[in-house]
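Lab notebook page, bench 4
Experiment: in silico fold of construct C2
Operator: M.H.
Input chain length: 1504 residues
Purpose: comparison with the prior construct
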Amino acid sequence: MSTSSNLVVPVVLWGRKPPTHCIAAILMTPDQRNIITGCNDGQIGIWDVTENSQIYPRSMLFGHTAAISCLALGSEKTDTPYIVSASENGEMCLWDISDGRCVENTKMPHIHTCMQAYHFQVSKDVRLVCNGYYPEIFIINPNSLEILYTLTSKVAPDWISACCILHPVTKDGQSICKDDVVVAISNSGAVKVWTLTGNEIMTQPVYENESKQIRCLNAQTLTCCSYNQRTVLIVCSKYWQIYDAGDFTLLCSESNRCGERWSGGDFISVDKVIVWSNEGKGYLYKLPVSLLKGKVLESANSESVEYRKPSHQTSPHAYYILDMFSESSMACAPAMTFHIGKSDRPTRFLLRGDSEGQIVMWTLPEVTERQMTLVRQESFDRLPALPPRCSTSLADIWENLRHPPAGIIDGLCDENNQPLAITSTIYIPSQGKVACGRQNGSIVIAPASQSIILQLLETEELKHKDVPVKILHGHHGCVTSLLYPFNESTRYEPQHLLSGGADFSVMLWDIYTGCKLHTFTVHGGEITQLLCPPNNCNSRILPCVCSVASDHSVTLLSLRERKCIMLAGRHLFPVQTIKWRPLDDFMVVSCSDGTVYVWQMETGHLDRVIHGITAEEILNNCDENATPMESLVNPNITLTQALKRRNLATFKNLAQQKLQIQTGTVQQSSSHRNDYLKQQTYPMFIQGIRANLKDPDIHILFFDTESLIVQLLTEEYSTMSPGELEAKGFMPYADQPDHGGFQGMMLKIKEKAEAVTGGQRSPSRSESSSRGGSPAHAASPTHKSVTNLDRSLTLDIAQLFLSCLHAWGLDPDLDKLCINKLGLLQPRCPIAFGLISRSGHMSLMLPGWHKRFCQEEIMEKMTKDFAPPPGKVTLIQQARSASSGQFDKKSLALAQRHGLVQSDYTDSDQDSDSSSRKDVPQRQSDAILNEMKAFSMKARWQISSAVTTNHLLSIISTANTLMSMSHATFVTEKTRKKRRGSKKRFTGHLGLVVAESFDSPSTSDDETDAMMMQQSQIKQGWSLKAALHCVLLPEMVGPDYLKSPQLEMLARRWQDRCLEIREAAQALLLAELRRIGPAGRKEILDQWSPFLPTYVDPQLSLMNAETLQKNEDGDDDEDEEDPMINDTPIQKSSSSFESRRKQATAIVMLGVIGAEFGHEIEPSRRKLEDIKKGKKSAQEGFTLKNYSLARHTSKALTFLLQQPPSKKLPAYTPIRRAAIDLIGRGFTVWEPYLDVSAVLLGLLELCTDSDRLVPSMVYGLPLTPVADVCRTARHALSLIATARPPAFIITMAKEVARFNALAQAAQTQHSTIMSSVLIRGKSEILKTIELLVEKMPSDVADQLVEAMDVTIHCLDINHMKTKGLQELFPTICRFSMVCMCPVTKRVWVGAKNGGLAFYDLKQHSKCQMIQAHSGPVIAVSVSSDGKFLVTYSHVDSRLKFWQTASSSLFGIGSQQTKCVKQTATPPIPMTNTTNLLKLVRLVWVDNRCIVMLTVDGKEQKYSV
C-alpha cells in the first residue's frame, strides 16, 4: 500500500532566546534576493534581501545531521529556486528555497569541501563541480544528486584543494569551441587541467590533459579572471599569488598582514582583486598591469600607447579595506564570499557570516585612478576603510520584535518574571499534557493546548493563573532528558514519567500525584538519552527502560524491580546509536568511532566488539522495528527520526487500527496488533528540538489534520445512539447479516473513546467528563482531571489549530462570527509556520520573517490612501446571500421575534460591539495591530504555494468536519454566561447573528427553536468559513499577494484516504482550475501532458507491463517515505520513482481537466443547462477536432482500472482510486475511447463486496484500502449510469445475454460461470437500476426490455415465483408497461418499438418478443386469473386484448399468445411536455372488463 503521507502543519514556538547559528558557509542567489547560510550545527538559514539591501530572516531548514561544509546553486532557472547543501558526513540535499522543501537527498561516502555550480556548454542546466577529502573531482547532477562522471589524476594523485571552471574565449569575447576547461590545484601543489568535451560518461574516469608542480601548498581558493583568462589568483593562508595561466609562471605575490591569515579572494576587474582574511576583513588590491599577460590588457599589446609608458608599480597595492570596526573576538573564522550580480550594471557584494549568526554585507566602492594615486602616496597604515552596507543577526531580530517569540510555558511558572530555559520536553498525547524539564532541575507538567493558547492567541476567559500546573522538584542541575514510556508501548504504566539529569541520576515519577517513586544512580556522567526496548524482548527486559550517559555507559533500569539489571560500561567513545536483536537477547551499541559493541541483555556479558564494514552490516541487520537512538552529537537527528518513526507507525496502524472494518482477512497476527495499538498518530504532537546542544528547546507543534478529523468523528459517532447510527447508515439494519463488521466496530469506537486515552475520557459534549480512566489510577483520590469539564482534548486542539490558520482580517463580519459563534480566538502575534518535506526534513519560518511584507505594506499605505475596490464587496455579498438563502423562514421569523434586526457593517473598526472592544485591549499600540493585519491578510499567504496548499486543505477539511457534527462550537458555557450580561445583538448578513446575548425565552418550544437556530447558525458559520478559504480567498487577498495552491499537491490528494481531506482537495483543485481560466489550463496541460505514460520513455512508463515487476507505485505526496529511496546511499531508482510519480500526477491532472472541461460527445442531462447558458467551452486537446489528450488520458485511466496488481502497482492504491473516480466523473468525455463493457465490469468487480465493506458514502473515518476503492467504484458506477443511462443499460444487457448463452452451453454449473462478476455483482447492478428509475425514469422506459433482462438476471428466480416481482423489486413495477401474471408467473413488458416481451421464469432463459403495436406500448396489464392481457399504445390509439394461455388440453403443446380483440380508443391530446409514463392506466374490474384511466381524468370501460 502506498502510504499517502499525512497532512501535517507545523507551528513553531521559538522561545525567548534565539537559536545558535554559527555560520560555516554563505551563498547569495543570482537574483540577489536571498542569502543562504549553512551552520556548524547542520541547519541552513534563508534570508531575504530587499531592494534597498535590508536583510530579513525567512526560515531555518532542519535535516542535516552534521555541520554544513558547503553550499551551491542548484539551478539557474527562475522557476526552480534550488540550492544544494553538503554536510561533513557526506549528506547532500537539494532544497527549494521558496518554501524550504527538501526536493532530493542522499548520503555519499565522499565529503565535499567545495561545490561550484557551473553551466557547461552541453548541459541544459547547471552541474555541480565538487572537490573535497578525496583525490578526484566529481561532476554531479543537482536534480538527482547522482555523480555523472569523475575527473581523475594520472600524475601524483592527491586531494584537490581548489578548482575553477572556465570556458575559453577569444579577445572580443567570442567562444572558441564547445569545450570547458577545469583547472585545479592539489594539496601538494600540482596544478592540473582537464578539457571537457561533453562526451564524458559515468563508467570511464577522465584523466587530466596537463599537470605541473608549483610552489603553493594547501591553497584556499583558485580563481581564473573572467575578464582576462590569462590571469589566475591562488590564495593560501600565508600569501596570495597571481599566475599566468599559459604556463603557470608566478607574476606577483603578497604576504599576509600581521596576525591575520588569508582565507579567499576573487577578481573585481582585469587588474583589481579582493582578498579576505580570517578576521573577516576584505582588502582591495591593484595589480601591477605591466606584469600581467593577456590580449585584453592594453598594456600587454605592443601597438598601444600604454605599452610604451614606463611603469612604476611592480607589486600589488592595497587601496581600500572593508571593515566591521568591531573588536569582539569570534569563536571561529567567518565564512565569506564575493558575489557579482548578473544584471546590466552588476553590483558587487562581499558577504560574511560569523559564529554569532551575524550576516554582514559590503557593496564594493567604485574607485577612480586619481583616488588610487592619492592612496598610493599616503602612508600604508591609513588606508581608507568602508563600513558595511548592512548587517543583521538572529539576536538583533529577536530584540526588535514587538512580541518576543513565545516559549511553550512562558508565564506559567516563571522566576523573577523571566521564563527559565527549557532543557528537555516530552508530550503526553493521551492526556494532552506537556512535561518540560528546566535548567534549575524542576519539571513542569501543564495542559498543552491551554498553555499554547495563552502564548499565541487573544483569550478573555483563560488567564495564566487558571492553568493547572504541576511542578516536580528533585534534580540538581538541569533536566537533560525525559521519557514517558506509555507513549511507546501500553505495557508500561500510564502514570510513570522518567527524567534524567545533569546530576547523573534517573528519576521515576508518578505524574498524577506528582511524587517521586525512585531514583536510579548508576551512571557516572549526565544522562543524555532515555529510550524503551522493543516489544518482543524477554519478559525481564520488557518493564525496563534504557538510559545512556555522557560517561559512555548504557544501562537497563527495571521499573518493576526498581533496580539496574544491566550496566554496559567500557565503551571508549561516546555512544551514538542503540539497536536491538531481541530474539538473540542482544543490545547493539554503536559508538562515534564506528565500533559496535554487542551486549547480552539478560546476563550483561559483552558478547563481542566489531569494527569496520562488519560493524555497519550488523547495525543494518538489526530488527526492523529497532528504534534508532538519536545521535548525541547533534539533536537534529532526533527530529528527523522522530518524524520518520511516527510516519511509519502511522501507516502500519492505519490499516488495522483506525476503527476499521475487518475485511475478513486479518492483516497481521494479533500479537502485532498490540504493538501498534499505542503508536497511533495524534491530532497534535509536540517535539522539542535544538539548534545546538547548549541551546534551550525550541518547540514544534505538529498538527495532523487527518488524525484530528478522525478523532472528532470518532467522538461524534461515540455519542450517537445505535438508532442514530442506523439512521445515518453507519450500522447495518436489523435484517442484514452483520459480516464481522459494524456493531463490533462501534463498540470499538466507544471503547476507544473511553479507554485508550489513558487518563482522560473524551467526554461527549452533553455529559460532563467522568474522571476515571485506567483502573491503575482511578482509585488514587489525589488525581484530578485537568481539562474543563465540558470540553474534550480534541476540541481544544481543533480550536487552537483553526484559530492559528484562519484568514483573519479579510472579512470582518466572518471574523466576528468566528469569535462569537464558533469560538475561535484571534492570534496575538504573527505565527511561525513550518513545512515538512520528504524523509522528515523541514523548514520553520523564523520570527520576524513577515517584517519585510509589513514594511512594504506600510509603505504602500502611505503612498495611497487605502480604499477597498468596490468589486470585491459585491462578490462576497453575492456569495453571502446565496449561502444564507439556506435559512428557512421559521428561523428568520424567530430572529425577528427575538428582535434581531438586520444591520449591515460598513466599517468593523468603529463598531459598538462590546466584545470586540475586549478582544483588542486599548493598551496594544496601533503598530502591533497594523503588523498583525498585514501578517494575516497578506504576508502569510506569501510564504509559498506548498504552505498555502497545506493550510487551505486543513482549514476546509476541518471546517467541513465540524459542520457535519452537532453542536460543534468552541464557545464554552463560561463565555456564554459572561456574554449574557450584555443586552446587545448584532446581525451581519441576512439575519445571520454575529453576536448576541441569550435572554432565556419563555416557553420550552421557543427554547428548542432557539437551539435549532443556534445549531443552524453554527453550521452556517462553518460553511461560510470553508467557502471563504476555498473560493473567495484569491479575490480577497489579491492575486499579487497570494501564492496560489499548488495544483500538483492537490492532484496527489485527489483520492486521499481521509474523506474530508479528499473532498477539500477536489474542491480546491477545481476552484483553482476555474480561476485560472482556459489559458491557465492550457499552460497546465502543456506542462503535464509530456508526462502521460504514453509519451514517456517506455522503460519508465507506468503502462509498460514488463517494468511493472519492479517495486512501488508512484502516487504519493512529496513528503513521502519511499521504500526504494529511503536511506540507501546509492539511488539508481530515484529517477524512475520520480518519473512514475510525475506520470501518476499527470494522469490525475489531465483526467480532472478532461472530465471537468473536456468536450462531451453528446452532452449529458446534467450539463445541458450549462450549455444553454453558454458557459461551456471545451478545453483544447479534449475537443472533437483535437482529441489526442482525451484519448491518451482515457487509455491511461482504463489501464489503471484494469491492470492486474503487481509489486509496482498494487491493487488498491490511491492512483487507482483516482483513475476510477475520474472515469466516473468524465465518462461522457472518455466514452468514445473506452471499451465500455470492460470498464463497467471492472467497476462492478470492485463493488462486489460493498455491502460488507462500506458503511455509507458519507462515513468519515478512513476505510481500509479495499473498502475505499469499493466506495469510489460504487460512486463512479452511479455517475456513469446517470450520465449515460442507455449506455449502462444496453451494455449490461449485452453482457447478461452473453453470460446466459455461455451458461446454457455449459453442461454442468461450471465454477467459472458461477464466479462471474455478473453473479457476484447482482446487488450492485440492482442498486444502480433502482437509482436510474428514481432519477431518470424516461431513459429507463426507452430501454425497458433491456433493463428487465438485467433485472430478471439479478433476481432470484425461486423467490420471484413465490413472492412476485412487486415484492422483490417494487421500483421497476412503477412503470405502467410492466406486469407479472399471478398465475403463470410470467413477466410482461411493453417495448418502445411496439413489441411485447415476456419472460418465462426459467434459469438462463431469454425473453420472447411479439410485435403488438405500431408505436411504443405505454401500458400493459394482465387479468387476475391470468387468461387475458391488455396492451395500449398512444400512437395508433388502440387497445388490444391478448389471450395468454392456449386452450389446448392440460396446456400441452405450444403456448401462443394471440390477439383476440382490438378496439380503437379516442386519441389523447399530447404536447411536448406530456409525461408518457403517466399518460394512461389500465385497471381490470373483473376477469373480462377493464377500465382505462387517462391523465386528463377521463375513464372508459372496455371488455373482452
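Observations: The chain has 40 helices and 64 strands. The mean pLDDT is 77.
Next step: discuss at group meeting.
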